[in-house]
Amino acid sequence: MDYHGGVGIDWFIKLEVEVRDLLTIQQPFGQTYAKHIGILVLGIGESGAAMARWCNTQGAAVRVADTRTNLSESLVAHRDRLQKEGVKDFHWGDLQTSLLDGIQLIAMSPGLSPLHEPMAEFLKAAKAQGIPVWSEIEFFAQALAALEREQSY
């Protein structure tokens, strides 16, 4: 059995399923907003993969893009898990502006700098189209606001 800090991996899997079930009860953007938007997740490291899973559980149409073309074992694991959960739209390599087609929101991994290429030019194109860029902290803030608005939390 795999262990992490003395706790069996089965415990973590059970906790993840319980948390996922709780998360699908509430919508981070409001009851109907997420189900009708396209979200582009930039970067599929730990944070990007987590944001992609979150958005997918909320009913958004998720597209994932990463500039890396030589996929590490962890990137393959993130991709495979997301595919099993229903995310099918992945793009590797150069960021083309066509990735913005059908997108209303960008989720950007904190490991990417908006000031350096290729992100700077790509985000400039997104801004010109009026597409906001959120980090995982903004997703958290929006989820809290939705809980307060919808469930008086």
Summary, kept brief:
It contains 5 helices and 7 strands. It has 153 residues and is α/β, with parallel strands linked by helices.
* Sequence stretches where pLDDT stays below 50 over 5 or more residues: 17-27
Separation of termini?
A: 39 Å
- Which whole number gives the mean pLDDT? 81
Please work out how many helical segments DSSP would assign. Answer: 5
How much helix is in the residues? 40-55%
Main sheet overview: 5 strands, parallel
Strand content: 15-25%
**Can you count the beta strands?**
7
H/E element order: EEHEHEHEEHEH
Tell me the radius of gyration.
Answer: 16 Å
Strand order of the largest sheet: 5-4-3-6-7
Q: Tell the overall outline.
A: globular
Structural class: alpha/beta
